[in-house]
Amino acid sequence: MKSTPQAQDSAASGIISGSRHVDHRDLAARALRMAGGLAALGVGQGDCVAILMRNDIPFLVASYGAIALGAFAVPINWHFKADEVGYVLRDSGAKVLVAHADLFRAVGGAIPRGLPVLAVETPPEIIAAYGIDPTDGRVPAGVQEFEAWLAAQTPHESPPLPPTLSMIYTSGTTGHPKGVKRRAMTPEEEKAMDAIRNLVFGMKPGCRTAVTGPLYHSAPNAFGLRAGRMAERLVLMPRFEAEELLALIERERIDALFMVPTMFVRLLKLPAAVRRKYDLSSLRHVIHAAAPCPAEIKQAMIDWWGPVIYEFYGSTESGPVTFVASAEALKKPGTVGRLAPGAEIKILDEAGSEVPPGEVGEVYSRISAYSDFTYHNFPEKRREIERDGFITSGDVGYFDADGYLFLCDRKRDMVISGGVNIYPAEIEAVLLAMQSVADCAVFGVPDDEYGEALMAVIEPVNGARVDLAQVRAELSQKLADYKVPRTIEVRASLPREDSGKIFKRRLRDPYWEGVRRKI
Q1: pLDDT tens-digit profile of 250-262?
Q2: 84, 114, 203, 502: which sits with the fewest CB atoms below 10 Å from its CB?
Q3: Would you tell me how many other CB atoms lie within 10 Å of the CB of residue 172?
Q4: Is residue 222 within 8 Å of residue 198, measured between CB atoms?
């Protein structure tokens, strides 16, 4: 793996992380050595290889090596505490753990006895991005260092097995996270999946892209692994920084990206002079998903970046089931699109009956061309979310008369106040459009009279002062009075993952603990 003081020259192809660069030929060779080494450690078809790393080149190497053996790469959320990491390692039955040295140090006591560990020295760009003590980034004595181990392995030479996808552990609303495990793909399924994902991700040979979100999440993982083999150049960002992304787009002539709406919000909060500073004309396809995107935010991004903004809706379990381009999004503000190729969606009421256009119900979907999935070790949980082969992630929405899907909120986040259904996502969209608001969460808290009352928690932009009276006034101008939260708080930061998803239950659950004890 080559290293140079700055980003590689613009003619080079391959993967870049900080000052390091690996070309496609070297990446493929490293992946085969990885596969050979994993096989020597006893990893075979259907086994699991756990990866506890931030965005880094060895993350891709470990994933590709597992795939070559017909095994499952299992990315672990590196925000997890030791007990949470230990649970995933035990539940997945991982045969090997590949981990950044600093993360290994933090969870070492939770690693099952006898599990082989390959520790990757935490690279300088990650040390800098997260303020890690450089000493913690070094591989501890007595632990196998990844690069030395990899160099000593014999490349895997057996014919490739049916390909697998990473087994992603969902964050889980209650209890432990669950591993979403798809069976190995048939050639027909692989072809169908490739076609759908290339369309949605805007991926094509020779594209230039970057991974802006954490590779332990399903969409960035699928995007990154595909780009690592298809893109002329893939840049791994250690973490998302708004202005740094703009500079990267200009410097590397990036044309395709996967992003989440929170990133849009942070970009739009940059000073106008900073936003005008960079040449973004190379952008061709910017796809976003993972969380609701307020129509005003999408409009502002299209005004700035042009009609290159696309969106898909789906989940780790379903894959991308809708798709929408900029022109349609402007024509139908708030839509997450129409059916993606091969996808089917039903909107069902509580009784399981399909509702007509315009009527709200729970969203169930499937892509018949995709290989089916189960929850690893919990097949009964798969059955709980299924109706006649269609599955749900708990989203509530409706189709309009033209076949465009609109989401109201997640079923579990819906607030019922005085018998009225209120969807927090609608209120959050109005809050996010305010200049002083960097992020927010709206949820229900106990109320003696109405059962639930609305509460909002706001994270201000760069510690700015938030005028709550003005916030209420703006909400009242755009929303019915019953949708204006009774309580609004300002907090310096909100609990959330790098994907932009807020851990809303961490905000909400303390208010309900006393109620649950009474029950």
Answers
A1: 999 999 999 988 8
A2: 114
A3: 11
A4: no
Residue whose tokens read 């040295």 = 101
3-class DSSP state for residue 213? Answer: coil
Q: Are strands 451-460 and 487-490 parallel, antiparallel or unpaired?
A: parallel
Count of CB atoms situated within 10 Å of the CB of 9:
8
Enter the pTM of the model: 0.84
Token pair for 407: 């989401």
3-state helix, strand, coil in the chain (%, to 5): 35, 25, 40
| C-alpha–C-alpha distance, residues 463 and 437, integer Å | 10
Q: Which band of pLDDT confidence, cut at 50, 70 and 90, is reported for residue 517?
A: very low
Terminal Cα-to-Cα distance of the chain (whole angstroms): 59
> Which DSSP symbol is given to 509?
H
- At 120 the three-state DSSP class reads strand
Tokens, residue 11: 């003619």
Phi, psi of 354, rounded to the nearest 5 degrees: -75, 135
Q: Which residues contact 473 (CB under 8 A, 6 or more apart)?
A: none
Report the distance separating Cα 362 and Cα 410, nearest Å. Answer: 9
Q: Provide the total of helices (H) and of strands (E) in the chain, helices listed first.
A: 17, 29
Using alpha carbons, select from 150, 168, 156, 161 the residue that is nearest to residue 71.
161
Amino acid of residue 398: Y
Count of Cβ atoms closer than 10 Å to residue 497 Cβ: 18
Q: For residues 467 and 477, is the Cβ–Cβ distance under 8 A?
A: no
Among 330, 277, 335, which Cα is nearest to 306's? 330
If DSSP codes are grouped into helix, strand and coil, which group holds residue 124? helix
